Amino acid sequence: MSEVIIEEHSSPIKTWQQALAVGVAAFVVPVLLIVAIVQLATGGLNVDASSGAMTEEAIAARLKPVGEALVGAAPPPANPATVPLTATPTTKARPGDQVYQQVCAMCHAAALMGAPKLGDKAAWQPRIAQGAPTLYQHAVNGIRAMPARGGNASLPDTEVKAAVDYMIGKAK
Fold first, then answer.
1. Could you tell me which residues come within 8 angstroms of residue 109 by beta carbon, excluding any fewer than 6 positions away?
2. Residue 57 placed within a domain
3. Could you tell me the residue range of the domain that residue 114 belongs to?
4. Please, are residues 166 and 97 in contact by the beta-carbon 8 Å criterion?
5. Shared domain check, 167 and 106
6. Of 46, 67, 86, which marks where a domain is finished?
7. What sign does the dihedral 49-52-55-61 (CA atoms) show?
């Protein structure tokens, strides 16, 4: 017959103090890791409760709906004599360099997603050869990875064209 050998398994934990230490560490270490990750993700966000941004009015203004849906006929104006017959823009179109800095520079300054870098003559020459009207159309409607109007849907055509003219001027 064969002999059966039974080995007793030993544990690295020998005393109740060691078991208590392992139990506490098993709870505390994950909690500390979660706190560290939250601090890293939020950048240690500290909000001053006494600041004007934390008033009930400011919070309500941030949470209010962007627009309202009006179902049915529009209500008549309070005083028809004050309503202008034609809508005229009250703001002047911004210059191309300003539009470029605010809308276009995010991609065109670093040549992101295939965007030709501002001032890179080699990258711009084939595009310039297509003609300004084609470049305007691409800027207004978008092309490949470039969103329409550079991602700013409220940008008027005149400002889009001014930005395109500015970029073309820097590539010549």
1. 117, 118
2. no
3. 96-171
4. yes
5. yes
6. 46
7. negative
- H helices of 53-156, where? 56-63, 96-99, 105-108, 121-129, 132-141
Q: How many CB atoms lie within 10 A of CB 103?
A: 20
Two structure tokens written together for 127: 């595009």
82 falls within a domain: no
Any domain includes 56: no
Residue 108's identity, in one-letter code, is H
Q: What CATH number does residue 112 fall under?
A: 1.10.760.10
Residue 74 to residues 64, 71, 77, 79: CA-CA distances in angstroms?
22, 8, 9, 14
Structural tokens at position 158: 């005149």
Residues 6+ apart with CB under 8 A from 142: 148, 149
pTM metric for this prediction? 0.48
**pLDDT tens string 93-148:** 888 888 888 888 888 888 888 888 888 888 889 888 998 899 899 888 988 888 88
Contact 54, 47 (CB under 8 A): yes
User: What is the percent of the chain with per-residue pLDDT over 90, rounded to a whole number?
Assistant: 16
